[in-house]
Design brief:
The structure is a single chain. With about 140 residues, the protein is mainly alpha-helical. Helix content is about 85%, strand content about 0%. The longest helix is centred in the N-terminal third of the chain and has 49 residues.
Length: about 140
Amino acid sequence: MKKECNRIEEKIIYILSSGTYLIYVFVAIILLILAALSLMDAITGFRMMLDGFKQSGMMEALHAVLLTIVIIEIMETVTGYLRTHTIQIRPILIAGITAMVRRLLFFDTEPLTILLLGEVVLAIVAVLILTIAIVYLGKKEK
C-alpha cells in the first residue's frame, strides 16, 4: 500500500514537473520573439537616422537595443533553468542594471521635477545595489 502511494506521488510530481518545463519552454519562445521584434525596432531607429532624424533615430535605436539586452538576460534565466533546473540570479541582476541604465539615459527627455529627481536618485541607488549584488555573487562563486 505504501509503495503504491509512493509511485502515485512520484507520477504526480513528474506530471507537474513536465508541465512546469513546458511552460518555461513556451516563455523562452515568447522571449525570443520579443527579442527579435525589439531588434527590428532598433533597425527602425537606424532607418530614422539615415532619413535625417539623427537624434530621435539614435534614441530609438538605443532604447530598442537596451530593451533587447534586458529581454535576452531574462531569456538566459529561463534557458538556464531549463538546463540546470535552478534559477540563476546573475542574469536577473544584469537585466535589472540594464533596465535602470536604460531608464537613466532617457531622463533627460523629460522636464525636471522633484518627482523626476527622486526617480533618478532611486534608479542610481538601484544600479549601485544591483552592482554590489553581482560583485558579491562573483566573490561567493570563487
